[in-house]
Each structure stands twice: as C-alpha cells, then as structure tokens.
Amino acid sequence: MPARTVVLEKLVKYNGEAHVPITPGEYTQLTGRAGRRGIDIEGNAVIQWSPTVDSAAAAGLASTRTYPLRSSFAPSYNMSINLIARFGRERARRSLESSFAQFQADRAVVGLSRQIRKNETAISEILLNAKCHLGDFIDYASIRREIKEVEVLLSRRDQKKSFDNRQRSRLESDLGDLRKSLRNHSCHSCNEREDHARFAERAGRLNRENEGLRTRVESRTNVIAKTFDQICQVLTHLNYIEGEKPTAQGKILTKIYAESDLLLTESIRCGLFDELNPTELLSIVSCMVFESRSSENTAPKMPSTKVSSSLTEVISIWAQLEEIESQYGVKTQREPDAGFCDIAYKWASGNSLQNVLKGSDMSVGDFVRSTKQLIDLLNQIAGASEKLRPTCKEGVKRIDRGVVAYLMGAI
C-alpha cells in the first residue's frame, strides 16, 4: 500500500531458493509506493545503511529505469470463475487470448518459427549436396543411423547383468538384417558415399533441432487459453461450474481471491472451520497465506491439538486437489505452510509482541505484513461465508491491535 516514506532494510530478497539481490524493476516497484496520491506532493525512499550495502550498487538501482516488461500473469481459479460468471466461458477464453502475457508468448513463438524456417531452408540446400545419382541417399543414411543406434544399444546392454540372452539375439539379428540392407542398397557403391553421408547427417541434426523447436512452439501457442481450459476442467470436476454458470459452491470461490483460493474454498465447503473459535480459525487459515523464508524442514510448533488436527485435514484436502490438478495438467495450489500458526494464535490470545516473536527469526516488519495478509484473508472468508462471518470478524478484532493497527493506520 502507498505510504509517505518507504524504507528498505536490505537490498536482497528471498526468491524461494536463495537470498539474491533485488533487480532494478523490483526496486522501482518497492519505492514506487512512496507518496500517497492526493495527500503527498512527493514520496521518500530510504535505504537503511549497513556494512553489507554497496553504495554504488544502491545508486545503480536508483538510477536504472530501463528494463523489459515481462508478464507473470496466469489464470487463477477465482479469476476464471469470475470471468465465466460475467462473460460466459467462450467470451472469457477469447479475452484471455488477447492478454499481454499471451502477446509475449506469441512474440517468442515468432522467433522460434523464424528459426524453424531458417533450418528448413538450410536442410533443402544440404540435401541437394547429399543427392546421389545411384539412388535415394536419405534412405541409405537412415539405415546407417539405425545401425548405429542398435550398436549403441548393444554396447549399453553388455554392461547390464540383467541383459537377457533372447534380447541380445534379437538385437544381433536386427543388426545383421540392417547391415545386409545397407550392403544391398544402390547407394552403397557410390564413390562419394562418405561426402553424401556428412551432408545427410547435418540435415538430420537440423531436422531433430526443428522437432524440438516445434514442441516449444506448441507449448507456447495459446498457453494462457489452454491453462484457462485446464482450470475449467478442474472446476467442472469439482462441480464449481455447470455449463456457462458457477454453481452455488462456485459462487463462494468468486469471493476468495487468495493464492490458495481453491484450497480455502474446498475447506469452507467441507465445513472444516465450522467448529473452530476465532483464534483457532485465524491460526489455521494462516497456513494458506504465509510462506516461510527459511529452508529448514523442521516441523512448526502447533498452538493446540485442535489446530494441529485441523491442519492435518487441510493438508489432506490439498493432497486431493493436487491429485485432481495433475489429471488436468494444472499446478496452482501450493502446500500449506504452518510457520505462522503459533505466532498468529499467540497474538490473537493477547500476548505482547515481544513474547509472540520470542524464539523466532521473524522481523517486526514481516510479522505486520503476514498479519495484514491474514486480516485480508479473514475478510474474504467473511464475505464468502455467512456462517463463518461472525467468527472471522471476531478474529480480525483480536489481531488488528497494537503495532499491527498502528502501522496499518499509518499506511
């Protein structure tokens, strides 16, 4: 959210695998929030000094303003079902086909297609040099290639103790037949046979390269619309859409726009949260917005047996969804992360900030950001489920206090 001043504690970020320097684009995105529209004449961006901060690198980030725009857009379940509800499935698909992300994918396809055409021209020229007056040299070269493949296969099988004698006999028989076909071929007696073979091999390499390029073209053509189709298949499988309209349970999904939108909606539909009190509810749903920065695989602390058992049920639903998604070639729902469950529970129970963060490597800034995301998620659930609304509203009251309320109010 915009603020009068933006302070960057460090110029590195965790990208899911390692801590890496932020890019000029990321720096601009972060500092671009400085200055509230209609309130501030200008905004300020401050980089906190530390011995590890390179002043020249900081100046370079601040002065760099030219970098390519790359769309990371991908259809989500919430976005897809809202488009269907508003425009119908076919019109929604056409809209996605004209998106900037698809434009970039199509632009990449143009370059790949150009390379394919270039290779095809080269292949045609090479094959002229491989032409033999005695017969079809491409057919002859194909037999040579098959012989080489069988020879390689036999040499690899020799190294395996499990290699069956019948398999060896069959391969040796095939190899003998191929060598006989090679000797009997009309091009075998050509004086320029090896020269022709070199040209044929070059043409073969280019053909194999084109096969790979065509596969890449196919994977990028209409990729956004294809993803939308796959998402619609999952939604139909789960009875969230029927024909051109969302079902009753699909309408719940239209109001949940978190990253784990489908997992959260399924949890609501299964009544997983119905018997939880406000503190337990906010603790368990935090696993759908929080993402640990640490790469440690230690099991996070659970605040209560009830929260722990609820987490087990959430993970079970996630595993079922992952299996359904894999059937249709989709991967959108990340695994629940329970790293904030205990912290959120303690904060909602009235503990001081010092006690809440004691023994944790979480900074105050990360705590406030995660709590703000949790408040947003609780408000989404309140808007989607009338039954859970009172519990969610009470949960928001319990965590929207102290430093969280102060910093959110100052934004």
From TrEMBL:
Gene3D superfamilies: 1.10.3380.30, P-loop containing nucleotide triphosphate hydrolases. The keyword Endoplasmic reticulum does not apply. Transmembrane segments: none annotated. GO terms for cellular component: Ski complex. The keyword Hydrolase applies. Signal peptide: none annotated. This is Unannotated protein.
